[in-house]
Amino acid sequence: MSGLTTQANTFVNTKLPIGLQCEHLINPLGIDVQNPRLSWMIPDDRQGARQTAYRIIVGKDSMEVVKKRGACWDSGKSLSDSSLVSYHGKDLEPFTKYFWLVEVWDQYGKPAMPSKVSGFETGMMKKENWKGSWISDGNDINKREAPYFRKVFQPSKKIKSARAYIAVAGLYELYLNGNKVGNHRLDPMYTRFDKRNLYVSYDVTAQLQNGKNAIGVLLGNGWYNHQSIAVWNFDKAPWRGRPVFCLNLRITYSDGTTEVITSGEDWKTSNSPIVLNNIYTAEHYDARLEQPNWNRINFDDSKWAKVTLRKAPSDQIVSQAMQPIRNVEEIPAKSVKKFNDSTYVFDLGRNIAGVTKIRVNGEAGTVIRLKHGERLYPDGRVDLSNIDVYYRPKDNSDPFQTDIVTLSGKGTLEFMPKFNYKGFQYVEVTSSKPVSLTQESITGYFMHSDVAATGKISSSNPLIDRLWWATNNSYLSNLMGYPTDCPQREKNGWTGDGHFAVETGLFNFDGITIYEKWLADHRDEQRSDGVLPDIIPTGGWGYGTANGTDWTSTIAIIPWNIYLFYGDSKLLADSYGSIKKYVDYVGKISPLGLTTYGRGDWVPVKSPSSLEYTSSVYYYVDVVILAKAARMFGKQADYSTYSKLAEKIRQAINDKYFNREKCIYASGVQTELSMALQWGIVPDEFKTKLAEQLAKRVEADGMHLDVGVLGAKAILNALSDNGQAETAYRLAAQDTYPSWGWWIVNGATTLYENWDIKAARDISLNHMMFGEIGGWLFKGLGGIHPDEQYPGFKNVLLRPNFVSGLAYFEAEHDGPFGKIVSSWKRSGNSVIYAVTVPANSRATITFPFINGEKVYENNKPLPGKIEVDAGQYEFIIKNK
Length: 880
Description:
Layout: E1 18-22, E2 29-31, E3 37-41, E4 53-59, H1 62-66, E5 73-74, E6 84-86, E7 97-105, E8 118-122, E9 134-136, E10 147-153, E11 159-169, E12 171-176, E13 179-180, E14 197-203, E15 213-220, E16 244-253, E17 258-262, E18 268-271, E19 274-277, E20 283-286, E21 305-306, E22 308-310, E23 317-319, E24 325-332, E25 335-340, E26 343-360, E27 367-373, E28 375-376, E29 382-383, E30 402-406, E31 413-415, E32 422-431, E33 442-449, E34 455-459, H2 462-477, H3 495-500, H4 502-508, H5 512-525, H6 549-552, H7 554-566, H8 570-589, H9 611-632, H10 636-657, E35 658-659, E36 664-665, H11 670-678, H12 687-700, H13 709-720, H14 725-732, H15 740-745, H16 773-781, E37 784-786, E38 795-798, E39 808-815, E40 818-827, E41 830-837, E42 842-846, E43 854-857, E44 860-862, E45 865-868, E46 871-878
Parallel strand pairs: 2-8, 14-23, 20-30, 38-42
Antiparallel strand pairs: 1-3, 3-6, 4-5, 4-7, 7-8, 9-22, 10-15, 10-18, 11-14, 11-16, 12-13, 12-15, 16-17, 18-21, 19-20, 24-33, 25-26, 26-31, 26-32, 26-33, 27-30, 27-32, 28-29, 34-39, 35-36, 37-38, 39-40, 40-41, 41-46, 42-45, 43-44, 43-46
Helix pairs in contact: 4-7, 4-16, 5-7, 5-8, 7-8, 7-9, 8-9, 9-10, 11-12, 11-13, 13-14, 13-16
């Protein structure tokens, strides 16, 4: 079915290309690659709209680019429908602004209006372009006070533009003339500091002034100097040191000359009023120690100390080209309970990751404690017992998730921590002397990597909608420049949690830059023998015996999913060598094709699964991805080797664990049956029967889950992809224990770590390891799937399931080509199914005929599987 509408040959599409991005960012600063990726979308809502050719023009002069003269690159008219193209012009120069536009030709060969001009600006490009020195305050790792640094300078000429580039081991805030530069939080992102450091770029033209200017830098510990002690031994990290930074302020004058103001021996340093800061625990602030105007020109720094020069923490200083962490949402307190004049408990009404701001007035020396937690004791006070279990304090001077503020007595204080975040819903405020607080005294800030939303779910079942919302809250709470397991107890980049939730993340948010950064962390952490730790980054913990395939399959699964969702193979190519080393290591310790290398089905309801079976399945998954990548990149020998290895593993699993007579795997519990279906282990001729067996097992388990994290990833997909969507939906919509819905009806606003709300352990209330359900809603009900033959939703696979428990359901996903909509509603005995396929893509629709239904478009009968071009469609599915 073509879906094309005839147009006159003279038609010229007036809808110019939109959504121009460079390296998956809009108008980025600090691009460090020679061949950046350029992408765009076509907002053409005509049936069959597609691109038949493109032309990219790149130059340093925006007006010349508008005139279609690209001094740096003119791709020429390329007969291609690609809208993701790498730059292939003249070598890019550092510190240079480039402008670009794209023009496209439509399905009739007619040109559309050219896009508006977009831009990107290069950064350092290579380490050698850094000037000046790395500086510190010279104190050792046990010094608790955060240091201030300052320098005054005077530009020599009239300023045209200015850029600040700052690389830090630790965390920082940068100030010019008393004002903070930018709105990022917790910069730079956490890496393995002795392997790779990130720098951040800012346009600071507007913040400089004629005459003298003052630069101020405040450094925090972050993960670089982990002073608090927990079971993961970050206090023993090989990179650990006193925070250190290098700054280049590059000024371009009106006459075209440049000057670079750098960090060096002429800077001065002093203690700040932040008397303790730990990324893991909290921040302590003594307002009596504040030095007003410390970052302004006329401040007297004669009593400040000299700085200490340090070597760079690593040999790789690279641009932080990714969405930053920000205070994304302000959340006022929903209620406050006053116990007495020195004890208050505030409730935000929902669980978040982030910080609080307090506004308080009191006597000098009054000590305010802000304890953040997810639960309350029966008496209404804050209970930390579910989240402080891995903290190993040396004394009581740094209580868990408790900011400590000492008042100066000089009017109302506003305090919000700069170098810490927490996971919490409740804030208990206690004071050493009486203070008067109101509901407005505390405000919460939801902090996370500020990724754009790309997905939306709505349905006739409020529980489903609430579950989708809660899942996204957990996903964002655990996106802090890398995916974490929880924002309070650990803040660790657990690999398993990361890949269990990747599809949920990618359906709902534009997270490619975060995952590209995290996979670079994987490559930094991988040992020469191929082994990966199961938390990344790590200070050394996690290279044990359980960091196996079910967890560290991130190295293969995440690059593969980025390829599927974005049609961008760069991350897969960058990770290819690491995937191969990892697979080869597993093969070395598991020569027969089966492996016990893994953690297993973590936190099951009641039934354990075979560790060898589940670990071997993930080994198979990794090898299959490696074989597909080898074929894609033209590595024929590898393709042959790993294709054979994949079949060997699959055969070994089936030989040992598949009972053909009973059509079950291993002991036949939900996880074991689900994983064979989800990951392609079961022979094709047994798929339908195995799905029936799984549905029967679910029914025997009271139509409830009996899975851990591996089963939670697999079970809904295994059912809905194999003719058992009704059972999948009943599980997803279940609201009694154990189920996702059980959490929701008991007040959850995020996902939990344990099916049992009252479990003795593993009971964080903001975890993502059971988060696959957020992606399944798009797949299992909306039916939206990427097509690995045409990735990036170039061809959308639509396999909706019109389950009986819903009156309507709609899924939207903004993919690389635009908005995909899969929406259905019941009308009498019929179902009306509406589809939007964005321009320059297509879709394959497979209708779920179970009872002999017929599908119609404009009263014309259609087969059960059809191909459609871009456009909007409406189908009616009727009973026979």
